[in-house]
Specification:
It contains seven helices and twelve strands. The protein has 337 residues and is of the alpha+beta class. Strands 7-8-9-10-11-1-2-3-4-5-6-12 form a twelve-stranded mixed β-sheet. Keywords: Signal.
């Protein structure tokens, strides 16, 4: 009998030890796995909304006039993509100062293609940086930046809520809501380190050189690799100087980030709110800004049929040859009531 109870106690001890070893997965580890899986997604649909609001009550009259068009800006898009983003098709809208611009945007064969209602032709952005290798490179950069943000925020700042019911364009689902926030000092540390990663990224530099080439072409300048490298270095120096000035003129009121992750480690929903104040030390004037971003991902792994137009010299125009994107009286303009 004694041996029987000893065996039962031993069994109970094993069970308790086993259960003790089944700890909940740390939220930081869940996010890292989700970030890694996100950059590997080959096909899906994504909706995106960014809302920028500026409070100009502390600004000068000149600043109010200069920033009036940016007082309330809403950018929306709904996009389906294949081949890890190398091919995509979707709708977008930009609302600013009571006017809404709507259009369609596509990507294929290294070209971004835009269609605006008021234009007969497609606008083509031809970039050397849109091949699959560079897309993969930029995704790895995104992964680096996401991981950096988690490291700076710290594991203690990350919270998790299980079995959360969430609505999405594909219907409701349950997942884990993982949230964290960052302070002014943490955000400035992140911006400084992120700027270094971005500026040293090869694909970013190649895209910048392509932009420089187009800009020089528009200004009638003769392009050369040496001149492009020089202008790229000047741009990098300006960014580094700007980041250094960040501490003097910008005060972050905090960043809050909220992800909802399904059982397969897909980030199905993400929300971000960033509040900041830009000061003018000489005049004591300031501008308060709030940026809200909301994104949803669905149809992951499903290959949608993309209706991408065939581009010819007759039905398209290169954007470098245009005097402007938004002609006056565009059909897309909708007055705000």
């Amino acid at each position: 009998m004694k041996n029987k109870y000893t065996s039962i106690m031993g069994l109970c001890l094993i069970v308790v030890m086993a259960l003790g070893g089944c700890k909940a997965e740390p939220p930081a580890d869940i996010l890292k796995k989700s970030f890694e899986k996100t950059v590997k997604i080959e096909s899906a649909r994504q909706s995106f909304t960014a809302n920028l609001h500026m409070d100009l009550s502390g600004a000068s009259e000149q600043e109010m006039q200069a920033l009036s068009l940016m007082r309330d800006v809403v950018l929306k898009s709904d996009t389906a993509f294949l081949s890890a983003g190398a091919e995509s098709a979707g709708d977008f809208s930009i609302h600013s100062d009571g006017i809404t611009y709507e259009g369609k945007v596509f990507m294929r064969d290294g070209k971004s293609i835009m269609k605006l209602p008021a234009m007969d032709k497609y606008v083509v952005f031809d970039s050397q940086g849109y091949n699959k290798k560079d897309i993969d490179d930029m995704k790895q950069l995104s992964l680096q930046l996401s991981t950096l943000m988690l490291e700076i925020a710290g594991e203690d700042a990350i919270t998790v809520e299980n079995n959360v019911s969430t609505e999405s364009p594909q219907g409701s689902f349950r997942g884990k809501r993982i949230s964290f926030s960052m302070s002014d000092s943490e955000l400035k540390d992140f911006v400084k380190k992120a700027a270094f990663l971005i500026l040293e990224n090869d694909s970013f530099k190649e895209n910048m050189k392509e932009s420089i080439r187009i800009q020089m072409q528009m200004q009638g300048e003769v392009y050369s690799e040496a001149e492009a490298d020089k202008k790229l270095k000047e741009f990098q120096d300006e960014i580094e100087t700007g980041v250094g000035q960040l501490y003097k003129v910008v005060q972050f009121d905090g960043l809050s980030v909220d992800y909802v992750i399904d059982k397969d480690y897909n980030i199905r929903s993400s929300k971000m709110k960033l509040k900041m104040r830009v000061d003018d030390p000489q005049t004591s004037r300031y501008v308060d800004m709030t940026l809200d971003i909301d994104s949803n991902l669905w149809d992951i792994g499903k290959k949608a049929k993309l209706d991408i137009p065939d581009i010819t010299s007759e039905n398209s125009v290169d954007w470098s040859e245009m005097s402007g994107f938004m002609p006056a009286g565009a059909e897309a303009q909708v007055p705000q009531e």
